[in-house]
Automatic annotation (TrEMBL), chains A, B, C, D:
This is Polyamine aminopropyltransferase. Keywords: Polyamine biosynthesis, Spermidine biosynthesis, Transferase. Spermidine binds at H66, E90. S-methyl-5'-thioadenosine binds at Q35, D110, D142, A143, P169. Homodimer or homotetramer. The keyword Transferase applies. InterPro entries: PABS, SAM-dependent_MTases_sf, Spermi_synthase, Spermidine_synt_N, Spermidine_synt_N_sf. It comes from Candidatus Methylomirabilis lanthanidiphila.
Length: 305, 305, 305, 305
């Protein structure tokens, strides 16, 4: 049993399950207009960003989450120039996008200015200067409305937002209507990537519903996953595109693309990892096929909070 | 935050991290001569076997653990007749082994008679009658000593024991000396499989040390993994053999072997799952290569307790 | 930080406060028609009865609760013959009542037969044979209805029930209407005693409201308290009567009465303890006076659950 | 079960018992040369000072602790002019001492400058300007050494320090040798008061050993107690003096002294509370008499940590 520490962060995973983290230091805590914001140093995972009581990323393993979210989609496009990031408060998604030399513009739109500012100040290991890159632009707006109103088109759109909890700001960015808006904002070879909830057997319905909902808006949908230990439960992602399918890239092709476009600094993602990520266990594939639910603005999906 | 429930099982994953489970019912609790034994019904995972405060398997996801531990090794052997199981108290490893029609004898040697008896009585969903199969034999002995003293040879040896905690009964079954004993008890095409600790970034050293230790005794060592959600952290396994390498089997070949030998009833393991399991993320491969430690009887490895 | 134990009982004292107990053994758990029933052995307190997730009594300190609840009221009556116990499932209130030689009949009416049966079987240290005393009678009925319908009159009525939680069986036994029914069932020198919720500063309103409500039905109301450590928060009680006031008994008088009627076996209650119990801190007295609320059937009071 | 909050402070009361507090805000956290220092706002108790993971005082009920510690001793002296405070970091003990108009000098000696400075800044409700009173003097020294080396004599010495945990700075201020030093520093009618650990039945040995140890150095020792809900367990105190015995003061006498010397602002302590505090339950008195242990520098007592 953990000893010595007396301050604990309990992340509720369900009404009957929680993840217990010793708090080494509480660095910042506030209620923004949109969510509760905590930055704490956790004993096993280092600094972590916690929104509405759920870990968004931790120092130890954020590289797994961000490399997974960004690079398969970026490599699925021949030469992405314009990239749009929904959310991505910590600036790490931006950091990974900016590794790609073809990128001329990376526009990050996050609704919560206070989260971004606080991450900028307290989590330098995440953004590593990405916010100051001349190609980067950050705007504090409702990303859905921005995409509805703009004429711009993007080669890659990365949706890096928190889970669709009932009281949170994210649930209208997981619907059929939103995915259609996103589809219209893509260039001809456009690709999107997003985090899609856990792939734990006890909780698959968010992941499978997002899959079916994406399929109503995109001809190609490629679900994939990664294990980010600070999340406790295994995590799902998805790439959707107008044609490109990351599952057609073999490990050798991916390693070549990484060498050309990114370089040697990745710690999680390479050809073998790429291949592994898009292979799903039998029970997950079965649930994906059996899922009938389409998430709509009028019939939103909420995850546990 | 979890509500309503007031009885909680806290599994300590490290001094700074725990997994919190609501207890629906406490079915059995005792201290055996070897370890503490609890069978509880947990809110998110159903019934679970807990030894020394660590979850061994739960109703919801034991199929992931047991299919992963047994079938890749069984399929790596042309036609396994004699199978030896170290540990495997719940009888589920036995259950999976007995799916293979080539099996003539499955000898399970577990040191803790009380654990096996209690699982036999309270966890029928695990053994599903395997203990009563005419091919099965269960003996309550120290498996290491048994293997040291017997002349018998086995086609497949599955090591299904709890983690090597300092006070527990398992740590001498994770050493170079033990793996040599196991190697001598294999037939010419013999294969072994074992659970090898977590592959979480915060805790890789057990998995990597076991890998290097196996390499001192076997020409082929193929590490692999699975995510068993009730374990909280992703889990590592390894196959070691005299020649057969499961990584050479493509998904189509595995699916054919499963159809021939096992049938359609598996829920986790198939060709695609097989392929996925043996692919490891970049950082895990790197740690495996960099690991120097060999576990020996005189220099045992202990995991956190 | 508590180590080694991994099973915990968390008693919620408020939405922001809990009491954490290591579970040594889970002896019994069930849902009765009225409440959840657990009998567990807790690390610091020994065996304990827990109803609806709240500790009712523990082996270590039940003597404090039961001596406090029973003897001041019993000694406030010249020679109690007929005693009525509302609730008292464990049989310990009965045990204390039966110490008094004047008692000819002790009728215990508890709504929950399963709780009483289970306590009878698993908590012998509580009843110590009281259930088998020829003077004792136990009936499984709604005590309020019993008192409404009977003609019997009692010298002492002890109300030993759990807190008035919204979903529980007890809240209609904390109202003005109920106290009037109780008053009518008393003989001329009749006295009642009851537990009245915590006297913790964070939570005084139950205790103070019960006080004002009793005053609508009885000419004499004497609030008092005791600290029962397993409850975490200090606990309030009250005596109400048709005339007798325990606060007029000095320590010497109480010691003499104890010697005459009870003997030397009490561990908590004597003259000095009696005097201490009826003295309340300044802030409690102030809140008692300022309280305006009267609890009624149509305006019940619910404590936190 | 507490909901919504996800940050928790778990105060370990024993290896099998803890008190769980929701953290509203973490205001300050640091490791001083002597102990860990946290100032947090807890859900049920408001701001609280926590040293080495144990609550020292909380906004809701610090008045109970500080009025109890200071006033009985101050009133036991005819006209205290010089007062010495050992510890008392928050400045609230100083605040209560300075209510007495006879006081000409209140010297507070606390070993931990950082604790005092931080309390001064973040807990104004505690000191309420006491630190700036011209009669007050604060020095950051080892109080035991100060008392050993000084010639000064004091009318009242208040020992307001944390519990004698093994790793903490306080355990040498609970010994026979220390009490003798204190005795020598008193004027003829000198009185001391100190907190003496819990009086919970599960943990009485600290309180009873301190009692017997004080008796080796003082002719009059008067143990007393109070319930401070944020402490979870009931708390013990003791007054020791060269002759004055607070138990000889009746409630009327105490009320008159309070009116003369302090005024109407006390919330916990008055004549009735005084009388209540010095009355102990039967089992506590018995344990006090049966205790044989004397705490010495060479045989220190450590409380759980």
């Amino acid at each position: 049993m953990p000893i010595k520490n007396f301050r604990w962060f309990i992340e509720a995973l369900s009404p009957e399950e929680g993840h217990l983290h010793g708090i080494q230091r509480a660095l910042f805590s506030a209620q923004t207009p949109f969510q509760s914001l905590d930055i704490m140093e956790l004993g096993s995972y280092g600094k972590a960003l916690i929104l509405d009581g759920k870990i968004q990323s931790s120092l130890l393993d954020e590289f797994i989450y961000h490399e997974t979210l960004v690079h398969p989609a970026m490599l699925s496009h021949p030469a992405p120039k314009n990239v749009f990031i929904v959310g991505g408060g910590e600036g790490a998604t931006l950091r990974e996008v900016l590794r790609h030399p073809s990128v001329e513009r990376a526009l990050m739109v996050d609704i919560d200015e206070e989260v971004v500012n606080r991450c900028r100040e307290l989590l330098p290991e995440w953004h590593r200067g990405a916010f100051d890159d001349p190609r980067a632009e950050v705007r504090f707006l409702d990303a859905r409305r921005y995409l509805e109103e703009t004429d711009e088109r993007f080669d890659v759109i990365i949706i890096d937002i928190s889970e669709p909890v009932e009281e949170g700001p994210a649930y209208l960015l997981f619907t059929r209507e939103f995915y259609r808006i996103v589809h219209r904002r893509l260039t001809d070879h456009g690709v999107i990537a997003l985090q899609a909830g856990t792939v734990s057997l006890s909780n698959l319905s968010c992941f499978t519903a997002i899959h079916q909902t994406l399929r109503t808006a995109f001809p190609v949908v490629a679900p994939y996953w990664a294990t980010i230990p600070s999340f406790a439960l295994p995590w799902g992602f998805s790439i959707a595109s107008k044609g490109s399918d990351p599952r057609t890239f073999g490990p050798g092709a991916v390693d070549r693309l990484i060498a050309e476009r990114i370089g040697p600094d990745l710690r999680y993602y390479d050809g073998q990892t790429h291949q592994m990520s898009f292979l799903l266990p039998k029970y997950v594939r079965r649930h994906l096929e059996e899922e009938k639910r389409i998430i709509e603005d009028n019939a939103p999906l909420f995850t546990f909070h």
